[in-house]
Design goal:
Blueprint (H helix, E strand, L loop, with lengths): L11 H22 L25 H11 L6 E9 L8 H14 L3 E9 L2 H14 L4 E6 L3 H10 L2 E4 L10 H8 L4 E4 L4 H4 L5 E4 L1 E2 L3 H12 L5 H10 L2 E2 L1 H12 L2 H4 L1
Parallel strand pairs: 1-2, 1-4, 2-3, 4-5, 5-6
Antiparallel strand pairs: 7-8
Helix pairs in contact: 2-5, 3-4, 3-10, 8-9
Amino acid sequence: QMPWDAVICTSRAVHASVTAQMDLTDDFLKTRFGGAVPPRPLLPVIPLGVSCDDFAPDRAAGAALRARLGIGKDDIACAIIARLTPHEKFDPLPLYLALARAQAQLGRRFHLLLCGQFRDEYARRVFTTGAQAMMPDAGFHLLDGASAADRKATLSGADIFLFPIDNVQETFGLAPIEAMAAGLPLIVSDWDGMKDTVTPEVGIRIPTEMPRGDLTVYLGQRYSGGTDSYVQYVSQLSALTRLDVAAMTAALVALGGNPGLRA
């Protein structure tokens, strides 16, 4: 490792994380061995990108999807394209609460289009039974995230793109960039890479709070000591991360009720 080597960071959050890790490593090396520490690599922040033309909306495909799913002209279609796992991506329950409340406040029907793949049957049950119990009057539609046609139709037929991520694995968030390229407004958690990419001109970030430092240290020690698996570690951090349901509800009402704001 030489000073001209580089580790590319995809967001400022990644840069901060890598820098903190290197600070700890340097402190350990100084204490354990004394003397000078090795040179650090460069740490440029270079975001991920997409080819915008690849995500240009197909209006006919979007209209056909809305017709097939029974989404009315005045209904609000909210899309998520993601891996559908509550352990390693996001817990859908705060979103379900917000969608039910927004529909009641606005008096217009909301539809959630989940385009992705389930890791296992447990994940499928979490997403489907949760939706049935917590937003029974809203539309709930599952589409195949492995199908390029379904992904295209989802982005083309939606009114709003949602990304309520609460998992530390999500260091950048490529799906919101793809949704921007498709011309959709965003509602996302105030999380890692989305702090860089989702500005007020393109969407709304929902206040998101990680657990206290003593809890994150405790969970980290359980993982590093072998008590918990990696999936247990990230899922417990996720379970203790809070999204502001009232703010998410307000964002859904604001965008759902204002076509000009969405545009």
